[in-house]
């Protein structure tokens, strides 16, 4: 069973067909989808046949309760506390750029993870955002000790721009050295932002997975052995939202079956391709 701990929030997608004009209305297209890497990975894991559990905090508002119901409807066992307001990500795409405005809201909690049941859990996924702000960051630090005691494999997601602003590159690298995860999965931009050379393994991780969109994914294992895994082109692409979370879900599901890292990367590519053909972070219509 996969246990995912972290954010559950709303993501508002905005497609810009023309540059916005200050002080004037600009016509856009928009959609609202579930956001938060941990919640998305759990949902996609359920869609591809897993029985995942999600742990996090969401707002004590209509939107927060709706997001929990939607996640449960996907087949995820949700352990969520409700407090404050639900977080939101506003993503604008168009004119050759992508911008994300992030307010994690209630996802900065919960303050305790002592209640989390590890029975039946064979794998844990933590997004980098889980370590950026208290009270969740401190709760996760304490939780990692339990994982080490019970030898539960851990996978870490890479830090985005907003995560690095709060956490810092050296703090994330020290986190990996301390947690010693089975894998760190991040994209090429996140890897570069940590001050690493293109083929560098992150010290402390058994495997470093570096994705690069349609370009080959790099698998760097202990000893510095690096392998490139090609990506099969996807055409047409409906929406790129959640493709990275789809890759994570496919990779983690394959690793739970005992697959090696390269085989798991191929599984991740297949699931990501399915997500690219749908609106939002899902493999189904």
Word description of this protein:
- By secondary structure, the chain is of the alpha/beta class.
- The protein has a single domain, classed as UDP-N-acetylmuramoyl-L-alanine:D-glutamate ligase.
- It contains 8 helices and 13 strands.
- The protein has helices at residues 37-47, 62-73, 136-150, 161-167, 169-179, 188-193, 243-256, 261-276, and strands spanning 2-5, 9-16, 28-35, 53-58, 77-82, 86-94, 97-105, 123-126, 154-157, 183-187, 207-212, 215-221, 226-229.
- The strands form 2 sheets. A 9-stranded mixed sheet has the order 5-4-1-8-9-10-11-12-13.
- α1 (37-47) crosses α7 (243-256) and α7 packs antiparallel against α8.
- The longest helix has 16 residues, at 261-276.
- It is globular.
- It starts with a strand and ends in a 9-residue tail after the last helix.
- The model has no long low-confidence stretch (mean pLDDT 94).
* Helical stretch tally: 8
CATH T-level fold name? UDP-N-acetylmuramoyl-L-alanine:D-glutamate ligase
Mean pLDDT: 94
Oligomer: single chain
* Extended strand count: 13
The largest sheet, given as strand count, sense and whether it forms a barrel, is: 9 strands, mixed
Distance between the termini: 25 Å
CATH architecture: 3-Layer(aba) Sandwich
Radius of gyration: 18 Å
Strand-residue proportion: 25-35%
CATH class: Alpha Beta
Please bin the fraction of helical residues.
25-40%
Instruction: Identify the CATH homologous superfamily.
Output: Ribokinase
